[in-house]
Design a protein that fits this description.
The structure is a single chain. The chain contains six helices and 14 strands. By secondary structure, it is of the alpha+beta class. It folds into two domains: 88 residues, no CATH class; 150 residues, PK beta-barrel domain-like (M1 Pyruvate Kinase, Domain 3, Beta Barrel), CATH 2.40.33. The strands form four sheets. A six-stranded mixed sheet has the order 9-8-12-11-10-14. A three-stranded antiparallel sheet has the order 2-1-13, with no helix packed on it. Strand 5 and strand 6 form a beta hairpin.
């Protein structure tokens, strides 16, 4: 199967069709990601029209937990999602960078440490991620301008990381659906192999990815998804085994097509 990667500045280099719609509070600049609204993890989505570089937010069909389906741009879609979440929300396509969503600050008087510990599912004795490692636009906006990403456009993980986590806690199901990487790589070796890629380039077929940062995981990894139950031990294991990180964030450098089975080659940034 082929996937096309694009470095277009307006989408900061992404897999075509990735995160091209968002659920936001009606009339407000606040995105309802599944970390805030875990019921969204019980929905599934498919494209009705194939995404393209000229039609990034192509029409999608969303299957709700009870089984009925709604489509973007059609009457009743926003109402159905609002009923699901219990508050007025609306589907939003990718917006132009000048219409970037401001980051919604915690309510006045909020204990910021407690707010972050809840978001990242960290206990009082566990370290919080170093958010100062992220680019300024990630910290300034709900989503980097012109995107619906949390941070970087690409998330890479290895099968070796999943094996390491499963070995550390066999009682939990470290299913790939909890972690949602764009690309899953069999890198050989053992442990959290991708940690050593940071600061380097990874070539997959003709496409090159600049590996930027380890990905600090949040409460979304613990939410129920499909038949997988809610499991707070997922984050306890991540913190104990890899500082709360799983996978690495990356940017597309030259664009191109990647295919299942492509060979991956790690290169220095100088190449």
């Amino acid at each position: 199967m082929a996937r096309r990667c694009s470095p277009s500045p307006s989408i900061r280099g992404a897999l075509l069709g990735d995160r091209v719609w968002a659920v936001k509070e009606e009339g407000l600049n606040s995105i309802q990601a599944a970390k805030k609204s875990p019921v969204l993890m019980q929905c599934s989505v498919r494209f009705v029209e194939a995404p393209s570089s000229t039609s990034r937010s192509s029409k999608v069909a969303i299957k709700l937990p009870e089984g009925n389906e709604v489509r973007s741009g059609e009457a009743g879609a926003n109402a159905a999602l609002s009923t699901l979440l219990g508050r007025p929300v609306e589907l939003s396509p990718i917006v132009e960078p000048q219409n970037a969503f401001g980051r919604k600050a915690p309510p006045a008087g909020t204990d910021v440490q407690a707010y972050l510990r809840d978001m990242f599912a960290r206990t009082a004795d566990e370290p919080l991620p170093d958010l100062f490692e992220f680019p300024a636009d990630v910290m300034a906006y709900e989503a980097p301008p012109g995107t619906w990403f949390d941070a970087y456009p690409i998330l890479l993980m290895t099968t070796q990381s999943f094996s390491a986590l499963s070995t550390a806690r066999a009682e939990s199901n470290f299913d790939v659906r909890r972690f949602r990487p764009n690309i899953l790589i069999d890198a050989g070796g053992s442990g959290f192999v991708e940690n050593s890629w940071i600061g380097k380039h990874l070539r997959i077929g003709a496409t090159v990815f600049a590996i930027e940062l380890a990905c600090p995981r949040c409460i979304m990894t613990t939410h129920a998804v499909d038949e997988l139950p809610k499991d707070p031990k997922i984050m306890r294991t991540l913190v104990q085994q890899n500082g709360g990180n799983a996978g690495v964030y990356a940017r597309v450098v030259p664009p191109g097509v990647i295919r299942h089975g492509d060979v991956c080659v790690l290169e220095s940034r100088g190449k």
